[in-house]
Amino acid sequence: MHQKNERMALNFMLPDYIVWKKEAATWDKDNGNDKDGSITVRNEYPQHPVPRVPLTVGFNSCEVEELMAQRYASIARSIANDIIIPDPTPQWVRATFIDKYAQLEPILQKDSVQCFLLLFEDCAGKGMSWNLTITAQTLTFMVSFNAVQCAKVILEGKAPELNGMHANPNCINSYGYFPLHEAAERFSVDMIKLLLRHGASANVRTVGNDVIEGLLPLHVAVENTCLHKYLEDNLSPNQSDLDFIYKLIHLLSLPEMKIFLDTTRLLAEKTNNLLEEVWKYIEDGKLIQSAVLLFAAQEQIRGGSSSNVKGSSKKDGFEIISKCIMRLSFALRWGKGSNGMAPELLEEKRTRIDCAWMLVDVISHAGEPLSAYIQAHSEVPRMEVMKHVSSILKEYGFLPTEVMDTLKLRPYDCKVSDEESCSKDANIMETAILHAAVEKAPPVTFVHHGSSEPMPIVAAAANNGRRR
Protein backbone atom coordinates (compact mmCIF):
# COMPACT_ATOMS: atom_id res chain seq x y z
CA MET A 1 0.00 0.00 0.00
CA HIS A 2 1.22 3.49 -0.74
CA GLN A 3 2.64 5.49 2.15
CA LYS A 4 0.20 8.06 3.49
CA ASN A 5 2.66 10.94 3.25
CA GLU A 6 3.99 9.92 -0.14
CA ARG A 7 5.31 12.87 -2.14
CA MET A 8 4.28 13.35 -5.74
CA ALA A 9 6.67 14.16 -8.54
CA LEU A 10 4.43 16.31 -10.73
CA ASN A 11 5.41 16.43 -14.39
CA PHE A 12 5.18 20.19 -14.80
CA MET A 13 6.17 21.07 -11.25
CA LEU A 14 9.90 21.29 -11.98
CA PRO A 15 9.82 24.83 -13.44
CA ASP A 16 7.29 25.87 -10.78
CA TYR A 17 9.53 24.45 -8.09
CA ILE A 18 12.43 26.45 -9.50
CA VAL A 19 10.25 29.57 -9.43
CA TRP A 20 9.27 28.80 -5.85
CA LYS A 21 12.88 28.28 -4.77
CA LYS A 22 13.91 31.53 -6.43
CA GLU A 23 11.03 33.48 -4.84
CA ALA A 24 11.68 31.96 -1.42
CA ALA A 25 15.42 32.66 -1.65
CA THR A 26 14.74 36.24 -2.71
CA TRP A 27 12.31 36.64 0.19
CA ASP A 28 14.89 35.29 2.65
CA LYS A 29 17.55 37.65 1.31
CA ASP A 30 15.29 40.71 1.22
CA ASN A 31 14.12 40.06 4.76
CA GLY A 32 17.56 39.32 6.18
CA ASN A 33 16.54 35.71 6.75
CA ASP A 34 19.36 33.93 4.96
CA LYS A 35 22.34 34.56 7.23
CA ASP A 36 23.41 33.18 10.56
CA GLY A 37 26.67 34.99 11.22
CA SER A 38 30.07 33.39 10.91
CA ILE A 39 29.97 30.22 13.01
CA THR A 40 32.71 27.72 12.20
CA VAL A 41 31.86 24.01 12.11
CA ARG A 42 34.64 21.61 13.14
CA ASN A 43 34.97 17.89 13.81
CA GLU A 44 37.45 18.26 16.66
CA TYR A 45 38.72 20.79 19.14
CA PRO A 46 41.35 23.16 17.72
CA GLN A 47 44.80 22.89 19.25
CA HIS A 48 45.30 25.40 22.05
CA PRO A 49 48.63 27.20 22.36
CA VAL A 50 50.95 25.87 25.04
CA PRO A 51 51.31 28.42 27.84
CA ARG A 52 54.89 29.40 28.49
CA VAL A 53 56.27 31.08 31.60
CA PRO A 54 59.78 32.57 31.46
CA LEU A 55 61.75 31.37 34.47
CA THR A 56 63.91 33.99 36.11
CA VAL A 57 65.97 34.11 39.24
CA GLY A 58 63.83 34.44 42.32
CA PHE A 59 60.72 32.72 40.94
CA ASN A 60 59.21 30.14 43.27
CA SER A 61 56.85 27.29 42.42
CA CYS A 62 53.76 29.12 43.74
CA GLU A 63 54.42 32.08 41.47
CA VAL A 64 54.93 29.77 38.51
CA GLU A 65 51.64 27.98 39.22
CA GLU A 66 49.83 31.30 39.51
CA LEU A 67 51.27 32.53 36.22
CA MET A 68 50.38 29.25 34.50
CA ALA A 69 46.83 29.51 35.82
CA GLN A 70 46.57 33.04 34.45
CA ARG A 71 47.84 31.91 31.04
CA TYR A 72 45.40 29.00 30.93
CA ALA A 73 42.55 31.32 31.93
CA SER A 74 43.54 33.69 29.13
CA ILE A 75 43.49 30.82 26.61
CA ALA A 76 40.11 29.62 27.94
CA ARG A 77 38.58 33.07 27.50
CA SER A 78 39.79 33.20 23.89
CA ILE A 79 38.16 29.90 22.83
CA ALA A 80 35.58 30.54 20.09
CA ASN A 81 32.03 29.18 20.23
CA ASP A 82 32.48 26.94 17.19
CA ILE A 83 30.14 24.07 16.39
CA ILE A 84 32.09 20.85 16.94
CA ILE A 85 30.45 17.62 15.73
CA PRO A 86 30.41 15.12 17.34
CA ASP A 87 30.76 16.07 21.01
CA PRO A 88 34.50 15.69 21.66
CA THR A 89 34.12 15.25 25.43
CA PRO A 90 35.69 11.91 26.48
CA GLN A 91 33.46 9.23 27.98
CA TRP A 92 35.35 9.28 31.28
CA VAL A 93 34.51 12.98 31.70
CA ARG A 94 30.82 12.28 31.07
CA ALA A 95 30.94 9.42 33.58
CA THR A 96 32.48 11.73 36.18
CA PHE A 97 29.63 14.18 35.59
CA ILE A 98 27.06 11.47 36.32
CA ASP A 99 28.72 10.88 39.70
CA LYS A 100 27.90 14.49 40.60
CA TYR A 101 24.22 14.24 39.71
CA ALA A 102 23.02 13.89 43.32
CA GLN A 103 24.87 17.07 44.30
CA LEU A 104 24.00 19.04 41.19
CA GLU A 105 20.28 18.31 40.92
CA PRO A 106 19.09 20.24 44.03
CA ILE A 107 21.37 23.14 43.09
CA LEU A 108 19.83 23.43 39.63
CA GLN A 109 16.31 22.98 40.95
CA LYS A 110 16.89 26.09 43.08
CA ASP A 111 18.94 27.73 40.31
CA SER A 112 21.52 28.71 42.93
CA VAL A 113 24.56 30.32 41.31
CA GLN A 114 26.44 30.48 44.61
CA CYS A 115 26.00 26.78 45.34
CA PHE A 116 26.97 25.81 41.80
CA LEU A 117 30.17 27.84 41.90
CA LEU A 118 31.06 26.36 45.30
CA LEU A 119 30.59 22.84 43.90
CA PHE A 120 32.57 23.66 40.76
CA GLU A 121 35.45 25.09 42.78
CA ASP A 122 35.37 22.26 45.31
CA CYS A 123 35.78 19.58 42.61
CA ALA A 124 38.05 21.74 40.44
CA GLY A 125 35.52 21.46 37.61
CA LYS A 126 36.05 17.71 37.21
CA GLY A 127 33.25 16.19 35.15
CA MET A 128 31.86 19.63 34.30
CA SER A 129 34.80 20.95 32.29
CA TRP A 130 37.35 19.58 29.86
CA ASN A 131 39.99 21.08 27.62
CA LEU A 132 39.48 24.58 29.09
CA THR A 133 35.73 24.72 28.42
CA ILE A 134 32.50 23.86 30.27
CA THR A 135 31.12 20.64 28.81
CA ALA A 136 28.01 20.35 26.66
CA GLN A 137 26.64 17.88 29.20
CA THR A 138 26.79 20.51 31.95
CA LEU A 139 25.03 23.20 29.91
CA THR A 140 22.39 20.79 28.62
CA PHE A 141 21.68 19.69 32.18
CA MET A 142 21.18 23.28 33.30
CA VAL A 143 18.85 23.95 30.39
CA SER A 144 16.83 20.83 31.25
CA PHE A 145 16.22 22.24 34.75
CA ASN A 146 15.55 25.71 33.31
CA ALA A 147 18.31 27.00 35.61
CA VAL A 148 18.59 30.31 33.78
CA GLN A 149 20.87 32.05 36.29
CA CYS A 150 23.33 29.16 36.47
CA ALA A 151 23.37 28.88 32.68
CA LYS A 152 24.00 32.62 32.43
CA VAL A 153 27.07 32.31 34.68
CA ILE A 154 28.72 29.55 32.65
CA LEU A 155 27.87 31.17 29.32
CA GLU A 156 29.49 34.42 30.47
CA GLY A 157 32.48 32.67 32.06
CA LYS A 158 33.33 35.70 34.20
CA ALA A 159 33.07 34.11 37.65
CA PRO A 160 36.57 33.67 39.18
CA GLU A 161 35.70 30.10 40.20
CA LEU A 162 35.47 29.13 36.51
CA ASN A 163 39.09 30.09 35.82
CA GLY A 164 38.25 31.79 32.53
CA MET A 165 36.24 28.84 31.19
CA HIS A 166 32.81 29.29 29.65
CA ALA A 167 30.12 27.14 28.03
CA ASN A 168 29.66 27.13 24.28
CA PRO A 169 26.00 27.92 23.40
CA ASN A 170 26.51 25.93 20.17
CA CYS A 171 27.86 22.77 21.81
CA ILE A 172 26.35 19.47 20.70
CA ASN A 173 26.02 16.78 23.35
CA SER A 174 26.79 13.09 23.00
CA TYR A 175 23.20 12.34 21.95
CA GLY A 176 23.28 14.65 18.95
CA TYR A 177 21.23 17.68 19.97
CA PHE A 178 22.06 21.22 21.06
CA PRO A 179 21.10 23.37 24.08
CA LEU A 180 18.59 25.27 21.96
CA HIS A 181 16.78 22.01 21.13
CA GLU A 182 16.51 21.31 24.85
CA ALA A 183 15.22 24.81 25.60
CA ALA A 184 12.66 24.45 22.79
CA GLU A 185 11.58 21.10 24.24
CA ARG A 186 10.99 22.86 27.59
CA PHE A 187 9.28 25.88 26.02
CA SER A 188 11.59 28.07 28.11
CA VAL A 189 11.42 31.51 26.51
CA ASP A 190 13.89 32.99 29.02
CA MET A 191 16.43 30.24 28.37
CA ILE A 192 16.06 30.58 24.60
CA LYS A 193 16.60 34.33 24.84
CA LEU A 194 19.69 33.76 27.00
CA LEU A 195 21.19 31.25 24.56
CA LEU A 196 20.48 33.44 21.54
CA ARG A 197 21.95 36.45 23.30
CA HIS A 198 25.19 34.52 23.80
CA GLY A 199 25.42 33.49 20.15
CA ALA A 200 23.44 30.26 19.91
CA SER A 201 22.42 29.44 16.34
CA ALA A 202 18.78 28.59 15.69
CA ASN A 203 19.87 26.75 12.53
CA VAL A 204 21.63 23.80 14.17
CA ARG A 205 20.13 20.39 13.41
CA THR A 206 20.06 17.13 15.32
CA VAL A 207 22.69 14.59 14.29
CA GLY A 208 23.16 10.87 14.94
CA ASN A 209 21.31 7.63 15.57
CA ASP A 210 19.87 8.58 18.96
CA VAL A 211 17.56 11.30 17.63
CA ILE A 212 15.47 12.05 14.58
CA GLU A 213 18.12 13.60 12.37
CA GLY A 214 17.87 17.02 10.79
CA LEU A 215 15.52 18.67 13.28
CA LEU A 216 15.84 22.37 13.96
CA PRO A 217 14.95 23.79 17.39
CA LEU A 218 11.97 25.30 15.57
CA HIS A 219 10.77 21.82 14.59
CA VAL A 220 10.96 20.68 18.21
CA ALA A 221 8.80 23.61 19.35
CA VAL A 222 6.24 23.16 16.56
CA GLU A 223 5.94 19.38 16.85
CA ASN A 224 5.65 19.39 20.64
CA THR A 225 3.06 22.17 20.52
CA CYS A 226 0.99 19.80 18.40
CA LEU A 227 1.03 17.33 21.32
CA HIS A 228 -0.93 19.79 23.46
CA LYS A 229 -3.96 18.08 24.95
CA TYR A 230 -6.37 20.73 23.64
CA LEU A 231 -5.26 20.02 20.08
CA GLU A 232 -5.15 16.24 20.44
CA ASP A 233 -8.57 16.07 22.11
CA ASN A 234 -10.38 18.31 19.63
CA LEU A 235 -8.81 17.81 16.22
CA SER A 236 -9.22 14.62 14.23
CA PRO A 237 -6.15 13.64 12.17
CA ASN A 238 -8.48 12.82 9.27
CA GLN A 239 -10.41 16.08 9.42
CA SER A 240 -9.60 18.72 6.83
CA ASP A 241 -12.48 21.10 6.21
CA LEU A 242 -13.44 24.68 6.97
CA ASP A 243 -14.77 23.84 10.45
CA PHE A 244 -11.42 22.20 11.19
CA ILE A 245 -9.61 25.44 10.31
CA TYR A 246 -11.92 27.59 12.42
CA LYS A 247 -11.65 25.23 15.37
CA LEU A 248 -7.86 25.17 15.05
CA ILE A 249 -7.65 28.99 15.01
CA HIS A 250 -9.86 29.22 18.12
CA LEU A 251 -7.76 26.67 20.00
CA LEU A 252 -4.47 28.37 19.14
CA SER A 253 -5.92 31.66 20.41
CA LEU A 254 -6.57 30.35 23.92
CA PRO A 255 -4.46 31.87 26.74
CA GLU A 256 -2.93 28.48 27.57
CA MET A 257 -1.37 28.32 24.10
CA LYS A 258 0.51 31.61 24.41
CA ILE A 259 3.72 30.13 25.88
CA PHE A 260 3.94 27.65 23.00
CA LEU A 261 3.35 30.26 20.31
CA ASP A 262 5.82 32.65 21.97
CA THR A 263 8.50 29.93 21.94
CA THR A 264 7.86 29.13 18.28
CA ARG A 265 7.86 32.81 17.35
CA LEU A 266 11.16 33.45 19.10
CA LEU A 267 12.87 30.58 17.25
CA ALA A 268 11.28 31.45 13.90
CA GLU A 269 12.75 34.95 14.10
CA LYS A 270 16.24 33.44 14.04
CA THR A 271 15.63 30.52 11.66
CA ASN A 272 16.96 30.70 8.11
CA ASN A 273 14.82 29.78 5.09
CA LEU A 274 11.63 30.08 7.11
CA LEU A 275 9.33 29.89 4.08
CA GLU A 276 10.84 26.55 3.10
CA GLU A 277 10.13 25.18 6.57
CA VAL A 278 6.52 26.37 6.31
CA TRP A 279 6.18 24.85 2.84
CA LYS A 280 7.49 21.46 3.95
CA TYR A 281 4.69 21.21 6.49
CA ILE A 282 2.07 22.33 3.97
CA GLU A 283 3.32 20.00 1.21
CA ASP A 284 3.31 17.05 3.62
CA GLY A 285 -0.31 17.80 4.55
CA LYS A 286 0.55 18.60 8.19
CA LEU A 287 -2.16 21.16 8.81
CA ILE A 288 -1.73 21.58 12.56
CA GLN A 289 2.03 22.07 12.31
CA SER A 290 1.44 24.49 9.43
CA ALA A 291 -1.07 26.46 11.50
CA VAL A 292 1.21 26.66 14.55
CA LEU A 293 4.13 27.98 12.49
CA LEU A 294 2.05 30.33 10.33
CA PHE A 295 0.22 31.74 13.35
CA ALA A 296 3.31 32.14 15.54
CA ALA A 297 5.70 33.42 12.86
CA GLN A 298 3.28 35.54 10.86
CA GLU A 299 5.12 38.83 11.44
CA GLN A 300 8.35 37.27 10.21
CA ILE A 301 6.54 35.76 7.21
CA ARG A 302 4.99 39.11 6.35
CA GLY A 303 8.50 40.54 6.20
CA GLY A 304 8.78 42.02 9.67
CA SER A 305 7.08 44.94 11.36
CA SER A 306 8.26 47.35 8.67
CA SER A 307 6.60 45.43 5.83
CA ASN A 308 3.48 47.60 6.03
CA VAL A 309 5.41 50.86 6.00
CA LYS A 310 4.97 52.83 2.79
CA GLY A 311 7.91 52.31 0.49
CA SER A 312 9.14 49.18 2.25
CA SER A 313 10.94 46.76 -0.09
CA LYS A 314 10.17 43.73 2.07
CA LYS A 315 7.94 41.11 0.48
CA ASP A 316 4.98 39.35 2.04
CA GLY A 317 5.79 35.65 2.38
CA PHE A 318 2.08 34.80 2.55
CA GLU A 319 1.73 35.79 -1.11
CA ILE A 320 4.57 33.49 -2.10
CA ILE A 321 3.10 30.57 -0.12
CA SER A 322 -0.37 31.17 -1.60
CA LYS A 323 1.02 31.12 -5.14
CA CYS A 324 2.81 27.86 -4.50
CA ILE A 325 -0.31 26.27 -3.00
CA MET A 326 -2.33 27.43 -6.00
CA ARG A 327 0.12 25.80 -8.42
CA LEU A 328 0.14 22.56 -6.48
CA SER A 329 -3.65 22.56 -6.18
CA PHE A 330 -4.07 22.94 -9.94
CA ALA A 331 -1.49 20.25 -10.57
CA LEU A 332 -3.31 17.82 -8.30
CA ARG A 333 -6.63 18.52 -9.99
CA TRP A 334 -5.16 17.93 -13.41
CA GLY A 335 -3.55 14.74 -12.16
CA LYS A 336 -0.20 15.55 -13.66
CA GLY A 337 2.54 13.12 -12.69
CA SER A 338 0.67 11.38 -9.88
CA ASN A 339 3.01 8.39 -10.25
CA GLY A 340 0.20 5.90 -9.81
CA MET A 341 -0.91 7.28 -6.45
CA ALA A 342 -4.09 5.58 -5.22
CA PRO A 343 -7.19 7.70 -6.03
CA GLU A 344 -8.20 7.97 -2.36
CA LEU A 345 -4.72 9.22 -1.39
CA LEU A 346 -4.71 11.67 -4.28
CA GLU A 347 -8.11 13.00 -3.21
CA GLU A 348 -6.94 13.28 0.40
CA LYS A 349 -3.90 15.27 -0.70
CA ARG A 350 -6.09 17.59 -2.78
CA THR A 351 -8.37 18.18 0.20
CA ARG A 352 -5.50 18.91 2.55
CA ILE A 353 -3.85 21.32 0.12
CA ASP A 354 -7.14 23.18 -0.32
CA CYS A 355 -7.53 23.29 3.45
CA ALA A 356 -4.00 24.65 3.77
CA TRP A 357 -4.90 27.31 1.22
CA MET A 358 -7.82 28.40 3.40
CA LEU A 359 -5.60 28.32 6.49
CA VAL A 360 -3.06 30.63 4.84
CA ASP A 361 -5.87 32.93 3.70
CA VAL A 362 -7.37 33.19 7.20
CA ILE A 363 -4.06 33.88 8.95
CA SER A 364 -2.79 36.27 6.27
CA HIS A 365 -5.92 38.42 6.65
CA ALA A 366 -7.01 38.01 10.28
CA GLY A 367 -3.75 36.88 11.87
CA GLU A 368 -2.47 40.30 12.95
CA PRO A 369 -5.55 41.38 14.94
CA LEU A 370 -5.83 37.89 16.41
CA SER A 371 -2.19 37.96 17.52
CA ALA A 372 -2.57 41.47 18.98
CA TYR A 373 -5.61 40.33 20.95
CA ILE A 374 -3.81 37.24 22.30
CA GLN A 375 -0.80 39.25 23.43
CA ALA A 376 -2.97 41.78 25.25
CA HIS A 377 -5.47 39.35 26.81
CA SER A 378 -3.48 36.42 28.20
CA GLU A 379 -5.69 36.06 31.30
CA VAL A 380 -9.14 36.46 29.79
CA PRO A 381 -11.74 33.68 30.38
CA ARG A 382 -11.95 31.17 27.54
CA MET A 383 -15.56 31.96 26.63
CA GLU A 384 -14.71 35.62 26.13
CA VAL A 385 -11.66 34.68 24.03
CA MET A 386 -13.76 32.40 21.82
CA LYS A 387 -16.36 35.10 21.21
CA HIS A 388 -13.76 37.72 20.39
CA VAL A 389 -11.88 35.40 18.03
CA SER A 390 -15.14 34.65 16.21
CA SER A 391 -15.92 38.36 15.93
CA ILE A 392 -12.47 39.08 14.45
CA LEU A 393 -12.89 36.28 11.90
CA LYS A 394 -16.35 37.57 10.93
CA GLU A 395 -14.98 41.08 10.58
CA TYR A 396 -12.60 39.78 7.91
CA GLY A 397 -15.31 37.93 6.02
CA PHE A 398 -14.94 34.47 7.56
CA LEU A 399 -17.99 32.80 9.07
CA PRO A 400 -16.91 30.39 11.80
CA THR A 401 -19.42 28.00 13.32
CA GLU A 402 -20.02 28.10 17.06
CA VAL A 403 -17.21 25.86 18.31
CA MET A 404 -17.20 26.50 22.06
CA ASP A 405 -19.91 23.96 22.87
CA THR A 406 -18.06 21.15 21.11
CA LEU A 407 -14.56 21.72 22.51
CA LYS A 408 -12.99 19.57 25.22
CA LEU A 409 -10.79 21.84 27.32
CA ARG A 410 -9.86 19.78 30.35
CA PRO A 411 -6.33 20.03 31.83
CA TYR A 412 -4.14 16.93 31.88
CA ASP A 413 -4.54 16.21 35.59
CA CYS A 414 -8.23 17.05 35.74
CA LYS A 415 -10.15 14.26 37.51
CA VAL A 416 -13.61 15.83 37.48
CA SER A 417 -16.47 15.01 35.14
CA ASP A 418 -16.99 16.72 31.81
CA GLU A 419 -19.70 18.92 33.30
CA GLU A 420 -17.49 20.33 36.05
CA SER A 421 -14.94 23.07 35.58
CA CYS A 422 -11.23 22.51 36.08
CA SER A 423 -8.52 24.70 37.50
CA LYS A 424 -8.07 28.00 35.70
CA ASP A 425 -4.58 28.61 36.99
CA ALA A 426 -2.54 29.19 33.83
CA ASN A 427 0.79 28.42 35.49
CA ILE A 428 -0.42 25.07 36.77
CA MET A 429 -1.87 24.36 33.35
CA GLU A 430 1.39 25.07 31.56
CA THR A 431 3.38 22.89 33.97
CA ALA A 432 0.91 20.04 33.49
CA ILE A 433 1.14 20.43 29.74
CA LEU A 434 4.92 20.05 29.70
CA HIS A 435 4.90 16.93 31.86
CA ALA A 436 1.91 15.32 30.21
CA ALA A 437 3.27 15.85 26.71
CA VAL A 438 5.97 13.37 27.67
CA GLU A 439 3.47 10.90 29.09
CA LYS A 440 0.90 11.15 26.31
CA ALA A 441 3.21 10.74 23.34
CA PRO A 442 6.95 10.57 22.67
CA PRO A 443 8.45 14.03 22.20
CA VAL A 444 10.22 14.78 18.98
CA THR A 445 13.75 14.36 20.28
CA PHE A 446 14.23 13.50 23.92
CA VAL A 447 12.98 13.44 27.50
CA HIS A 448 14.83 13.45 30.78
CA HIS A 449 14.91 10.72 33.37
CA GLY A 450 15.71 11.49 36.98
CA SER A 451 18.13 8.62 37.40
CA SER A 452 21.31 10.06 36.00
CA GLU A 453 21.36 12.51 33.09
CA PRO A 454 19.52 13.66 29.98
CA MET A 455 18.61 10.62 27.91
CA PRO A 456 17.23 10.70 24.37
CA ILE A 457 14.33 8.74 22.99
CA VAL A 458 15.34 6.85 19.87
CA ALA A 459 12.52 7.69 17.47
CA ALA A 460 11.77 5.40 14.57
CA ALA A 461 10.87 8.10 12.08
CA ALA A 462 10.02 11.77 11.88
CA ASN A 463 6.85 11.22 9.87
CA ASN A 464 5.18 8.27 11.55
CA GLY A 465 1.48 8.25 10.69
CA ARG A 466 0.66 9.49 14.19
CA ARG A 467 1.72 13.07 13.47
CA ARG A 468 -0.75 15.26 11.66
Would you kindly provide a written description of the structure presented here, covering whatever features stand out?
The chain is mainly α and 468 residues long. The protein folds into 2 domains: 13-36 and 228-444, no CATH class; 41-197, no CATH class. Helix content is 52%, strand content 3%. A two-stranded parallel sheet has the order 1-2. It is elongated. The two termini are 19 Å apart.
Summary?
The protein is an all-alpha fold and 468 residues long. The chain is built from 20 helices and 6 strands.
* Principal-axes shape call: elongated
Question: What proportion strand?
Answer: under 5%
Q: What is the count of structural domains? A: 2
Assign a percent range to the helix content: 40-55%
- Helical segment count: 20
What is the distance, rounded to the nearest whole angstrom, between the alpha carbons of the first and last residues? 19 Å
How large is the radius of gyration? Answer: 25 Å
List segments where confidence is low: pLDDT < 50 over at least 5 consecutive residues: 1-15, 305-312, 414-468
Structural class by helix and strand composition = mainly alpha
Annotation, overall tally of beta strands: 6
